[in-house]
Amino acid sequence: QVQLVESGGGLAQPGGSLRLSCAASGFTFSNYAMTWYRQAPGKERELVGRISITPVALAYAAPVKGRFTIYRDNAENTVFLFMNNLDPNDTGVYCCQVPTFDAWGQGIQVTVSS
Predict the structure, then answer these.
(1) How far from chain centre, in Å, is Cα 31?
(2) Cα–Cα distance for residue pair 81/90, rounded to 1 Å
(3) Phi, psi of 89 (to 5 degrees)
């Protein structure tokens, strides 16, 4: 059974940083691309970025490019989202996903506010 569990969210000040983690189990993590999505209040869910099976991210959404970095640790079955220079517009629920299985984590809240 595919399981994804996010952690590391919370409150950050504008300009601050947070690191999200997504621990995966139930499948051979190293064989699958992973994605991060987010959903801001009152808005549709949007793709944040995607990382291929090698630790090289394929793409980031324009609003986060240059500020967010996705990294995967295949030995730990974990994908990370490093978020820097946070803006209040980054507030939302962040989820990781295994696109191949369309499996999702439960999501974790990130709030950027002074």
Answers:
(1) 18
(2) 13
(3) -70, -10
